[in-house]
Design a protein that fits this description.
The chain has 308 residues and is α/β, with parallel strands linked by helices. The protein has nine helices and 13 strands. The protein has a single domain, classed as Alpha-Beta Complex (Spore Coat Polysaccharide Biosynthesis Protein SpsA, Chain A), CATH 3.90.550.10. The strands form three sheets. Strands 1-11-7-8-5-2-3-4 form an eight-stranded mixed beta sheet. The chain starts with a helix and ends with a helix. The relative contact order is 0.14. The structure holds 2-acetamido-2-deoxy-beta-D-glucopyranose (NAG) (5 copies). One 2-acetamido-2-deoxy-beta-D-glucopyranose binds next to α9.
Amino acid sequence: MRYRIAQRFLLSNVIVLSLLFILLHYLKKDDLTRRSPKFDILDVPFNHSFSLGTGSPNDSHSSKSKFIIGILSQDSQIELREALRQTWIPLLKKDLPLTVEYTFVLDNPTPATLSELRTKQDIVFLNSSYSGYAVRFGEKMYKWFRYVTEHYPDATLVAKMDDDVFLCVNKMFQRLSNLKHRRLYYGWQHNKEYMQIDEMFVVLGMDLVLRINQRKYCYRERSQCNNKSELVDEGWGGKSIGLWLSVYDDVLTVPDNQNIIYYNRAMKPPIDIRKEDNFCQKYLLYHKATVSDMVFLHNMTTAGETNK
Ligand SMILES: *[C@@H]1O[C@H](CO)[C@@H](O)[C@H](O)[C@H]1NC(C)=O
Ligand SMILES: *[C@@H]1O[C@H](CO)[C@@H](O)[C@H](O)[C@H]1NC(C)=O
Ligand SMILES: *[C@@H]1O[C@H](CO)[C@@H](O)[C@H](O)[C@H]1NC(C)=O
Ligand SMILES: *[C@@H]1O[C@H](CO)[C@@H](O)[C@H](O)[C@H]1NC(C)=O
Ligand SMILES: *[C@@H]1O[C@H](CO)[C@@H](O)[C@H](O)[C@H]1NC(C)=O
């Protein structure tokens, strides 16, 4: 009898201990997965909005939130700038759920771009210290965010995008209006290990912009920079922003790859836009678009709207 009680006691101890081991194992695993990407990655279905609110007591329902877009362009890309000005940019003036303002963002003034500024009134010069493909693009991001902080302190969302992007204006701003959080980090995600939203279209909530703006851009050699306190340049702008945001643990990351068509020089276009019935009914954005792609997509979009 005593022997059987002892046996039971032993058995229950073994069971409790094993349960504890299993629990510890899972806790440890959970801790690891939680720690490696320091981001809350949120899957927000198309029509859904954050239940968290906008995070700002001032974002009242009566006034629309402000969205500022900087379109990074090279001096020579005048044809792309003109294509944007004639296709989706005029649609920003329409009645959208957000008040949207845009500006082209160029490195440094030249006689030609100064004259373009005089006629179009939509260019900001960053006075960049560097030029060249993927050379210290982080500095351009840093200067753009600093410019926005100074000139649009009342913005809620800020974007940096490239001049070879076609935006489906109505759908994109309906989507972003549902996501208008001051700690949002939105766009097309490159990889999960190292959180990085591609710089061809990256949206940040204003609180994140303000935090970045409080740090110093590191002009020294990379190895002599402090990753945590300073803004270290990764060469690419998107990678740099990803690194800068990685020190915060409350960033609301919304990768929207299924609604965005993205490809680059190293990839083939994943779809043929000329075989789509109405691109902007399915998607929010196309990169990378040539001038003729933009004219085609714009024509398709506006034709679709007048048919309705
Ligand atoms: C999604 O939003 C659109 C536009 O506001 C609306 O017409 C549609 O009914 C919504 N769909 C769902 C499933 O809520
Ligand atoms: C809210 O509004 C007040 C008064 O206009 C201003 O002082 C404050 O900085 C605003 N806060 C935010 C987070 O915008
Ligand atoms: C670049 O310099 C010009 C002229 O000094 C100035 O007006 C402009 O605001 C500067 N750009 C930025 C982004 O600070
Ligand atoms: C900064 O980041 C680089 C690259 O990610 C890394 O090699 C380096 O060790 C980091 N430096 C510090 C001080 O964390
Ligand atoms: C625009 O669409 C119309 C039909 O909707 C078509 O006839 C025309 O060729 C298109 N133009 C371009 C530039 O794609």
